[in-house]
Specification:
Length: 372
């Protein structure tokens, strides 16, 4: 096997590709340009202008009263941080694909006792199973952690219903990984007992990768204050206390990414959360119809994602070759199935700034290459 570490000089000379991945996704030109500015210091007044703007604009966009942290990190940081900040010992994690499994693994590596509710890949998490697990647990759980949009299978889990039932368990925090859908799939955060919901900027926010966003309920913040979290970098206290005192971040942030964030968040506010979600729904409906006509859908019916469609390869096309040829001939990049599903399925990311028209260009290209 080729040595992956062997230096292959980055030439900067690559054809432009349109991204239909489940993130990173397409970024507007003016958002990319916003990054190319002379640097300034992270303790200058200008930084306070920038950081308070992006935090408050995010709160307005998400329509939440919760606190908001925008951190230089990928979303993975908030698996660790929310676990360390909120879980003393026991956590319940329904697993139904690669990312929810990883969320459970992360918590275990941090020394927590994790009970899983295991589903077959492609199945959605069922609220009644979560209730049963909570009911039958002798000691209860410090938190339920789950993935809203299972990117590996294209399943959108019913987090709102699960949050509602958690209203009966006020000692249990609700942590939602919405990394591959937040911003493209409306959720009323404050109405469903969500304590923390987080995303990475390279997904439905349609920004470059490198920042992670997390909301924090008052209860979650107080709990962390009380317990004095083991997390420093992603500690709610460290992040929010610094914000309250200085309107800045506790350590040096990726300033160019925050400049891009500011620009894109203005676009997102202009469109509005509900309309952005509606546009994502239209793209998802178009993609599902196309998938049903030519293949089939991988997720359990009724739980299909609004931002990533996972298509069951019922015709047995060569997925790797189709992905490669569409990339070479059309300069469009979509995803094969995740892990073991690489040939059994493929995935189209219809998130961020895409439209039904841009998605149709991809499905036309796939039809052409796969001879559909
Ligand atoms: C559901 C989900 N959780 C977590 C992650 C990890 O996100 P990141 O790579 O931004 O840390 C991903 C990435 O695709 C994801 O889709």
């Amino acid at each position: 096997m080729a040595d992956a570490r062997k230096k292959r000089e980055y030439t900067g000379d690559y054809p432009e590709k349109t991204l239909y991945l489940p993130g990173p996704t397409e970024v507007r030109e003016d958002v990319i340009e916003a990054m190319a500015q002379p640097m300034f210091g992270h303790r200058m007044d200008r930084m306070t202008d920038l950081y308070t703007t992006i935090v408050e604009d995010t709160r307005a966009f998400l329509d939440t009263d919760q606190r908001v942290i925008v951190l230089t990190a990928s979303g993975t940081e908030f698996w660790e941080a929310t676990t360390l900040n909120l879980v003393e010992d026991r956590m319940l994690v329904p697993t139904s694909g690669a990312f929810s499994t990883r969320q459970a693994n992360v918590a275990e590596r941090l020394g927590k006792t994790v009970d899983r509710i295991e589903y077959e890949w492609g199945q959605a998490v069922k609220p009644e199973d979560v209730r049963e697990a909570l009911e039958s647990s002798e000691d209860g759980y410090d938190a339920v952690g789950m993935v809203m949009n299972e990117t590996s299978t294209g399943v959108r889990n019913p987090v709102e219903e699960i949050g509602d039932l958690l209203g009966d368990y006020p000692e249990t925090y609700f942590v939602v990984d919405a990394i591959s859908c937040l911003g493209g799939d409306y959720i009323d955060i404050d109405a469903h007992n969500v304590d923390c919901i987080f995303t990475s900027t390279q997904k439905a926010f349609a920004m470059p990768p490198g920042l992670a966003v997390c909301t924090v309920s008052d209860a979650a913040y107080e709990r962390e204050l009380e317990k004095d979290s083991a997390s420093w970098y992603g500690g709610f206290q460290r992040c929010l206390d610094y914000y309250d005192r200085k309107g800045q971040t506790h350590s040096t942030p990726a300033i160019p990414l925050m400049l891009a964030y500011r620009k894109q968040m203005k676009h997102m506010l202009e469109e509005g959360h509900a309309d952005r979600s509606r546009r994502h729904r239209e793209m998802a409906e178009y993609t599902r119809e196309w998938a049903r006509e030519h293949f089939d859908l991988y997720p359990e019916a009724g739980y299909e994602s609004q931002s990533v469609t996972c298509i069951a390869n019922t015709r047995g096309i060569d997925v790797a070759e189709t992905v490669e040829t569409v990339s070479e001939e059309y300069d469009m990049v979509f995803s094969s199935g995740y892990g073991d599903l690489s040939e059994e399925s493929f995935r189209i990311g219809h998130m961020g700034e895409h439209t039904v028209e841009s998605i149709r260009r991809l499905t036309d290209a796939i039809e052409d290459v796969a001879g559909l």
